Amino acid sequence: MREQEDHSVSPSDNLDPADVEKLEQRVSFLREEVKNKNKVVKLLIDQLRELIKDISMWQSPVTNKREIKQHRQLVLILYLIYQGHLRS
């Protein structure tokens, strides 16, 4: 098993204020990016829930071709995200 590296900074380290500012900006950017990606994932999960709900309610073959196409696209998008091929 890998040992975790300690990336903490002690107060005794000499840090350039410009470097600290850059790191703080990077942290802020990454937090915002994670927040946005979490919104996309939540939306996809909600759409998947709706798809599963719709499929479970089907009692006869769906005749609406547009609806079938949307469901296929959603399933493909979810599969690609699961496989890591698609980045939001």
TrEMBL record:
<feature type="coiled-coil region">
    <location>
        <begin position="20"/>
        <end position="51"/>
    </location>
</feature>
<dbReference type="InterPro" id="IPR034568">
    <property type="entry name" value="MED30"/>
</dbReference>
<protein>
    <submittedName>
        <fullName>Uncharacterized protein</fullName>
    </submittedName>
</protein>
<keyword id="KW-0175">Coiled coil</keyword>
<dbReference type="GO" id="GO:0016592">
    <property type="term" value="C:mediator complex"/>
</dbReference>
<feature type="region of interest" description="Disordered">
    <location>
        <begin position="1"/>
        <end position="20"/>
    </location>
</feature>
